[in-house]
Amino acid sequence: xxxxxxxxxxxxDRINTAADPAQIEDVRLAALGKKGEISxxxxxxxxxxxxxxxxxxxxxxxxxxxxDAALRARKLALEDAALDARLAGEWLxxxxxxxxxxxxxxxxxxxxxxxxxAIFADMGFAVAEGPQVESDWYNFDALNIAPEHPARQExxxxxxxxxxxxxxxxxxxxxxTSPVQIRAMQQTGAPIRxxxxxxxxxxxxxxxxxxxxxxxxxxxxxxxISMAQLKWTLEEFCRAFFEVPSVxxxxxxxxxxxxxxxxxxxxRCSWENGQLKIGEGDSWMEILGSGMVHPHVLRxxxxxxxxxxxxxxxxxIDRLAMLKYGIPDLRAFFEADLRWLxxxxxxxxxxxxxxxxxxx
Length: 360
Hints:
Strand 6 and strand 7 (259-272) form a beta hairpin. The longest helix is centred in the N-terminal third of the chain and has 40 residues, at 50-89. This protein has two domains: 5-89; 108-344, BirA Bifunctional Protein, domain 2 (2-Layer Sandwich). The model has no long low-confidence stretch (mean pLDDT 86). The chain has helices at residues 5-17, 21-32, 37-43, 50-89, 108-122, 136-139, 178-188, 227-241, 295-300, 317-325, 338-344, and strands at 126-127, 133-135, 171-173, 192-201, 212-222, 249-256, 259-272, 275-278, 283-293, 309-316. It is built from eleven helices and ten strands. It is α+β, with helices and mostly antiparallel strands. Strands 1, 4, 5, 6, 7, 8, 9 and 10 form an eight-stranded mixed sheet that branches.
């Protein structure tokens, strides 16, 4: 093969005269692309003798590497020049005083919902969601709540307006997130482990109640689910959420239409000098309700109660936030007072995790 010096100089000149990245790409394709001049010469090596192939192949490889390096250097130089020109045109006096941006914070309710979700996700529970406007059947009938139950009266539940003569089933603002359990069972069947956090609505308003608040429901269904597993789940949750080495729970017999047997759960605590301490002391505080899922509820979700059984529990997210972070009045959660939020709020980077720590 002839001397490659003229070819080398030709392509180096074209590279050096390229005026922008687009021309650099054109030169690269013409020289080193699949149909480029250097590539075509590489294909001619097969027609040469072994001695010629060794010498010419080495020279072509060196030329290809040199041109590739020159292309990269020229492209970088053009990009640097373009950046310098842009900076010159967008000149700004950085010595001017800056304007501090207001620091936003995460609402304690959002923080606690993330903490609770992280804990139960670590136990294998998925998150399920459902509509906030529910049919009367999902909110009451499917959960074994009798027609004469006080919760189905207008003094306790927000019923949606119906026009005169409208015979469709009534709809309500859901009074709990338990309807999500029915929808989750209908969608995925059994076995299942889900939690259902979200907003709920009831006609109540005082220092510890608001017409809208946040609730978390939990559901686990399997072949051999028992109250012992429910107890372990709740103990592990409380220990992780309150970030204490151990907790002691007390189960008291109770009645909920959707569970049988049912139990209210108290946690051991102390109130020394008005400060709540979980896991120690001689006092008990109710924190949630629980029990084994009623067969009627399983049937409503399309699950055979002769083959499957499970446990369920429910707790108020707002109350958990009050207990953990010392917030005295529930109504403050919804007053949009920026001073309160700056005091109780969490930094945007405080993402809770079980392994890394839930709170600051």
